[in-house]
Amino acid sequence: MSIKPLFSFFFFRGEIMTARTGHDAKLVIAILMVTMAMGMLDAISLLHLKIFAGYMTATIILMAVNIATSQAIVLSGLEAIACYFTGAIIGGRLVRRERHTRLVVGDILLGVGCLVGLAAFVWCAQLRGGIYITLGMLSLAMGLQTSATRHAKLPDMVLPAATMVLHGLAHNSTVAGGTNSGTWRRLAAIASLFVGAVIGTLVSDKNVGIGIAAAGATVFAAGGLLHWRRHPLALHLDKMSIP
After folding, report:
1. Nearest partner of 55 among 65, 44, 66, judged by Cα
2. pTM value?
3. b/e 89-119 (16+ beta carbons within 10 angstroms → b)
4. Which residues pair with 175 in a beta bridge?
5. Is the C-alpha dihedral spanning 98, 99, 101, 103 positive or negative?
6. Of the N and C termini of the chain, which has fewer Cβ atoms inside 10 Å?
7. Inter-axis angle of helices 183-206 and 208-227, to 10 degrees?
8. pLDDT class of 15 with cuts at 50, 70, 90
């Protein structure tokens, strides 16, 4: 019998780490942070931009509703889709680099955090056409972010949306004949999305720019976590797995 399955190793920045039986704890935590940030941005987008910057299903539905009712946000919807599509193309190129998954995802999230922060600055600067510039930058960032979360390959957490997470909870439950694997991770994702939307709503009600900046800072922190190495807690997380 081959001993390879028993002693499988991979290299990470010159260090040898044993193969995991679950999901990378740092990736799970980072994606939960991103999910909370996306809840913030979705709430802010809906309330103040009148269109979703990252939730394209809802954007398409809103466009259809507004065409049917002769309201004028169709151009904003087309802008959001085009910028999201562009971000996804750029993200697709970035994730295909020969680099460890955690670092690839971390690199993109750092860039997304900066881009969202720049969008917050544009909003606060009150430039002419600033709402469209902000929408375009956020949609571009969300396309990049989705490439990062897809590359992380966490079940039901590819997108910061509750539909697949709720379905995964039911589908993998013991009632459905499953093993309840990943239940706490999925519950944490739903809670993160909900809390993020509440925070985004409350903060943007006072200052939209600060709300956008807070979401950007959260994404940036998630990217930083994936690069964090020289600390006992970081080393402990390196060894942890989450179902």
Report:
1. 44
2. 0.84
3. eebeebbeeeeebbebbbbbbbbbbebbbbb
4. none
5. negative
6. N
7. 140
8. very low
Instruction: Provide CB contacts within 8 A for 147, sequence distance 6+.
Output: 87, 88, 90, 91, 92, 94, 95, 108
* Mean pLDDT for the stretch of residues 88-111: 93
Half-sphere exposure of 86 (CA within 13 A, CB side): 13
- Residue 100's pLDDT is 87
Tens digit of each residue's pLDDT (9 = 90 or more) over 45-83: 999 988 888 888 888 988 888 888 876 667 888 999 999
Q: What are the C-alpha distances in Å from 171 to residues 5, 29, 111, 167, 176?
A: 29, 23, 35, 6, 6
**Average pLDDT estimate for 19-29:** 75
User: Mean pLDDT of all residues in the chain?
Assistant: 85
Structure tokens at 225: 């976590």
Token reading at 127: 């430039």
Q: Cα(146)–Cα(54) distance, rounded to whole angstroms? A: 9
Angle between the N-to-C axes of helices 25-44 and 130-152, in degrees from 0 to 180, rounded to the nearest 10: 160
The mean pLDDT of 131-146, rounded to a whole number, is 95
Give the CA distances from residue 173 to residues 177, 200, 214, in Å, rounded to whole numbers and listed in that order: 6, 31, 35
DSSP state of 46: I
Please calculate the CA angle 203-33-83 and round it to the nearest 5 degrees. Answer: 75
Give CA–CA dist 216/106, Å, rounded: 14
Joined together, the tokens standing for residue 151 give 């590359």
